[in-house]
Amino acid sequence: MKWIIWTVGALLAALWTGTLAVVALLVGWTSKVLQGSGGSIPSTLPTLELPAWLALWIDLPAWQAAQEQALQMLASIQQWLPALGTATGWLEPVVWTIWGLGMVLLLVAAGASHWLWGRLSPATPRTS
């Protein structure tokens, strides 16, 4: 049973890492859009190519829809764009800090589950 706990933990860690990698790419792309346009929303969207390892897992139309959604989010916060443009240098490290905290929580949860399962399961005598 303990191997199931660690397998689920590893799958959740992979899912968490992939999700935050996509978020970090979108944050970096959004900051480049803001820096390149001088704090306003550009009329044409620059393309962002997916890394090869990520392109296998994400559908291209879904990726383009995520970019369009990020642009619509920027349009809804138009008055704060100049301040956001100055904050782009630390947004991506914040994403990876959140990733690190999430990984620590996943490891603690898996370790605690491993320990708890060992404490709750009855000991079986070994015969040689």
Characterize the structure shown:
It is built from 5 helices and no strands. It is mostly helical. The protein has one domain (2-7, 14-39, 51-117). α1 (2-37) runs antiparallel to α5 (88-120). The longest helix has 36 residues, at 2-37.
Key features of this structure:
128 residues, mainly alpha, 5 helices, transmembrane helix, membrane
What is the secondary structure topology, with strand pairs?
Elements: H1 2-37, H2 52-55, H3 60-76, H4 81-86, H5 88-120
At a glance:
The chain crosses the membrane at residues 94-117. This protein is mostly helical. It has 5 helices and no strands.
Q: Determine the number of helices (DSSP H or I, runs of at least 4 residues).
A: 5
The low-confidence parts are none
SS strand fraction: under 5%
Largest sheet: none
Determine the mean pLDDT: 80
- Approximate shape: elongated
Distance between the termini: 23 Å
Radius of gyration from the alpha-carbon trace, in angstroms? 21 Å
Secondary structure class reads mainly alpha
Total beta strands? 0
Order of helices and strands: HHHHH
| Secondary structure: helix percent | over 70%
Counting structural domains, the number is 1
